[in-house]
Specification:
The longest helix is centred in the middle third of the chain and has 17 residues. α1 packs across α7 and α3 runs parallel beside α4. The protein has 241 residues and is of the alpha/beta class. The chain folds into two domains: 129 residues, NAD(P)-binding Rossmann-like Domain (Rossmann fold, 3-Layer(aba) Sandwich); 105 residues, Dihydrodipicolinate Reductase, domain 2, CATH 3.30.360.10. The protein has a six-stranded parallel β-sheet with strand order 2-1-3-4-5-11, sandwiched between helices. Strands 7-8-6-9-10 form a five-stranded mixed β-sheet, with helices on one face.
Length: 241
């Protein structure tokens, strides 16, 4: 499979390494040094594009791939407020797209466990729930897309919650919202805690990423899944969960 990588930073380089290990060819690499190479002619040589850029450029990168007729897998976060526009564009162009807040296979299993736990905890209002995410200091968006997905999963199952909020230093008493604590530390690939607390005890589930390799592997597996398909997909489709 011929792959284009849009965003050739640390994640892009790891995607390239995993793709080559799995027998694919990376025939185009786009970063800040060669934006002029991001043309329809160049991209058209690829069977799929994998996009890992940043919140400011992801929307434009993904839409360009769709308009150029190349299936695209996007792992950038912080731009999902415009995801509806991209889905409409994908349908208009009969394209193929897969966006995810996290491509790690373990995290996507974690998403399912989170929803199942929230479904149970909906019956126990004495427990409050909060999410804590810890990432490296280079991560530009806060909270993380993974934390938002976890929050949305819990909110969909817990009737007393209606929204999430980024918890600041000053504690607020908004019992209808789920607080997310975003912490930035050097050299942390990604740690997420979902905690239910009561006066009697705490219940907590945790996912700890040891490296970025899991994100890159999941993105390549997603690309293998969608490169010959049409439509809008998620990691639930890829993993059949």
């Amino acid at each position: 499979m011929n792959i284009a990588i849009i965003g050739y930073g640390k994640m892009g380089k790891m995607v390239e390494s995993i793709a080559v290990e799995r027998g694919h060819q990376v025939i185009l690499k786009i970063d800040i040094d060669n934006p002029g190479d991001f043309t329809q002619a160049n991209l058209g040589k690829a069977q799929v594009a994998i996009e890992f850029s940043n919140p400011k450029t992801a929307f434009a990168n993904v839409t360009r791939c769709i308009e150029y007729g190349v299936p695209v897998v996007s792992g950038s976060t912080g731009w999902f407020d415009r995801l509806g526009e991209v889905k409409n564009l994908c349908a208009e162009h009969n394209g193929s797209m897969l966006c995810a807040s996290n491509f790690s296979l373990g995290v996507n299993i974690f998403f399912e466990i989170n929803r199942q736990l929230a479904r149970v905890m909906n019956r126990f209002p004495d427990y409050s729930v909060n999410i804590e995410e810890i990432h490296h200091t280079q991560k530009l968006d806060a909270p993380s897309g993974t934390a938002i997905t976890l929050a949305e999963g819990a909110i969909s199952e817990i009737s007393r919650l209606s929204k999430w909020r980024l918890q600041q230093n000053v504690e607020t008493q908004d019992f209808a919202s789920l607080p997310i604590h975003a912490i930035r530390r050097d050299s942390v690939p990604g740690t997420h805690h979902v905690r239910y607390s009561s006066e009697i005890d705490d219940i907590e589930i945790t996912h700890i990423a040891h490296s970025r390799k899991g994100f890159a592997l999941g993105a390549v597996i997603a690309a293998e899944y969608i490169h010959d398909k049409k439509g809008i997909f998620s990691m639930k489709d890829v993993l059949m969960i």
